[in-house]
Design a protein that fits this description.
mainly alpha, membrane, transmembrane helix, transmembrane
């Protein structure tokens, strides 16, 4: 009877050891899943950093576009001012031709010419 009881206790202890091994495996699986979740959080954080950096690049490109628009506007102002200068010089030449026609200017020698 004692030997059967001892065998039953040994069998029960083997079952307990097997259950504890299964529980250990579950703990390992849970630990590994926690590691995977942590790694996925790291990946999410890195992707957020990449998104932020791309937003910075987009903002900088918008600044460059705005500056190029300013340069274009300034060159348009320069062209407009050049056209004004050309128009004014045409007015001066026109007025000079009216005041002193070519045939009169050829005969005029002194700067204060009165014909």
């Amino acid at each position: 009877f004692v030997q059967r009881l001892a065998n039953a206790v040994i069998s029960l202890s083997n079952i307990v050891i097997s259950l504890s091994n299964v529980i250990s495996l579950y703990i390992v699986v849970i630990s590994l899943s926690i590691v995977v979740i942590s790694l996925s959080n790291v990946v999410i954080s890195l992707s957020n950093v990449v998104i932020s950096l791309s937003n910075v690049v987009i903002s900088l490109s918008n600044v460059v576009i705005s500056l190029s628009n300013v340069v274009i506007s300034l060159s348009n102002v320069d062209i407009s001012l050049s056209n004004v200068v050309i128009s004014l010089s045409n007015v001066v030449v026109s007025n000079n031709n009216i005041a002193y026609p070519t045939r009169m200017r050829k005969r005029c020698i002194v700067p204060d010419c009165r014909v």
